[in-house]
Amino acid sequence: MVATDTALVRVTGVTKTFVMHLRAGATLPVLREVSFEVHGGECVVLDGPSGIGKSCILKMIFGNYRIDAGSILVRQGQQWTDVARASPRDVLRLRQCMIGYVSQFLRTIPRVGALEVVAQSARDNGLEAATARARAADLLARLAIPERLWQLPPATFSGGEQQRINIARGFVAMHPVLLLDEPTASLDQKNRAAVIEFIRRRKRAGTALVGIFHDEDVKRQVADRSIDVSRFRA
Amino acid sequence: MSAGEEALLTAAGLTKLYGARIGCMDVSLDLYAGEVLAVVGESGSGKSTLLSLLATQLRPSHGRIRYRMRDGVVRDLFALGEAERRFLLRTDWGFVHQDARLGLRMGVSAGGNVGERLMAVGWRNYGRIRAEALDWLARVEIETGRIDDLPTTFSGGMRQRLQIAKNMVTAPRLVFMDEPTGGLDVSVQARLLDLMRGLVADHGLAVVIVTHDLAVARLLSHRLIVMRHGRVIETGLTDQVLDDPREPYTQLLVSADLRG
To answer: What is the CATH number of the domain that holds A225?
Structure first.
């Protein structure tokens, strides 16, 4: 009997070294032999001290960082794509339809309002405009962003507000794979609870989540498994 | 995944030599509809030569460019007749210069500048031409009351927006931009970038933009080409090249960029 493959992300033998040419070509080995899988409906937490390469792993899965060896496969239906070898256009397409990412910092676009920033992400993911706006509005409300801010560009917002815009942007689309880089850092109790609820809902919807969480309490509430990243230290 | 989709423009082995000096050496690239490609590098890197070659303003010493015309037929650009090439430049392509004086006729009104391009493709009805010009001035956020004013009375940002309106009025599929935000105040730049982003998204435009400003490249482009001494030294997804630069020169460019 052949078991159904429920893995959506398969990282195998990934190695990452930074070469700093401005420091006389000094090499900074970060990770070696990173291997793990993430299945639909589970939240895998990357654990370990800061600086060990947790964010680096998320960036490699998103195709933001390149890798030196190994493969990062993402499954769309029956088709696996290696993010590390895909053409730039294919990586962009994967980001639109497959991989969502809540980064630590929001890169804002001048003159585009918060609601529009969030709705755009859903439209990119294939939602029709009105539905995208409705979903965006719902998420902003759940994250307690006052409605008077919705039309304003997030560049003018406080750090905490920007982070919530970033979270809304990541969760508004229904990417089958969702990467979370400390989404709950510096959130108050109520917003933290909202994000935990978002994560639980996505697990029920079959999303494969990979996250980094500082807060032990949040970790306990969302994690199905933890991976100690120190074991991949180069 | 990209199978079945054809490139709009394909350049192969583009080389331009000025005597013994290299303008641009062995550059190959693909450009697809809806895609913004940024070419970055310092002055003298060959990025402007590359743009001039792609826009057929220069003939290459070697190499060729294939372009998918509106009728779907792929043609070799340097094999086009002069009349065909001019028609392409006036309809299917746009060119936004850093210096608006190169892209606009400064002695002709704003409306005249936009209308001229329509007349060049056969529009004759004055009322329709003026209505179309008004519509495009509004879309690039120029007060329609300024339609009869000369571009000499416009600010730098307005002149750039007028250039864009003039280019967009014939619904081009490909627009070349040479440092379009150069020399503008940051707030004026932001407005222009936002406008360009909207046009790319709404019209599925393909854009080749030459800039030395990495922030502009990051905001606008999907893919990035880094040039030095006439050669492409690094290329890839824009965020990947800027966040994880591999080549010594790219690392230097990124580290020298104050805005990150």
So the answer is: 3.40.50.300
Pairing label, strands B223-228, A69-76: unpaired
Closest alpha carbon within chain A to B216: A109
CB pairs under 8 A between A and B: 60
How many domains would you assign to chain A?
A: 1
The contacts found for B29-32 with CB under 8 angstroms, 24 or more apart, are: B29/B225, B29/B232, B29/B235, B31/B7, B31/B174, B31/B206, B31/B208, B32/A89, B32/B5, B32/B7, B32/B8, B32/B206
Nearest CA in chain A to B256: A22
Nearest CB to B240 within list A20, A66, A81:
A66
Stronger pLDDT, B259 or B63, i.e. the higher one: B63
Q: Does a structural domain hold residue A1?
A: no
If you search the block for the tokens 């004086």, which residue do you land on? B101
Residue B78 CB neighbours (<10 A)? 14
Neighboring chain A residues of B188 at a CB cutoff of 8 Å: none
Domain ranges of chain B: 104-171
Whether residue A92 and residue B237 make contact (CB cut-off 8 A), yes or no, is: yes
Within a domain: residue A182? yes
pTM value > 0.80: yes
Residue B3 above 50 pLDDT?
no
Q: Which residues of B touch A81 (CB under 8 A)?
A: 1
Residues of chain A with pLDDT below 70 are: 1-4
d(CA B242, CA B254): 6
CA distance, residue A112 to nearest chain B CA (Å): 8
Residue B258 banded pLDDT, cuts 50, 70, 90: low
B35 contacts A21? CB cut-off 8 A: no
Nearest to A88 among B197, B219, B223 (CB): B223
Tell me how crowded residue B220 is: count the other CB atoms within 10 A of its CB.
24
Rounded CA-CA distance B171/A43 in Å is 47
For A85, the closest chain B residue by CA position comes to B236
* Residue B91 to residues A59, B10, B37, B68, B174, Cα–Cα distance (Å): 41, 19, 21, 14, 10
* Domain hosting residue A195, numbered range: 7-232
Q: Assess if residue A188 is contained within a domain.
A: yes
CA distances from A137 to A55, A127, A148 (A): 29, 14, 12
Could you tell me if residue A2 is inside a domain?
no
Contact: B222, A92; criterion CB under 8 Å:
yes
Coil vs helix vs strand at B251: helix
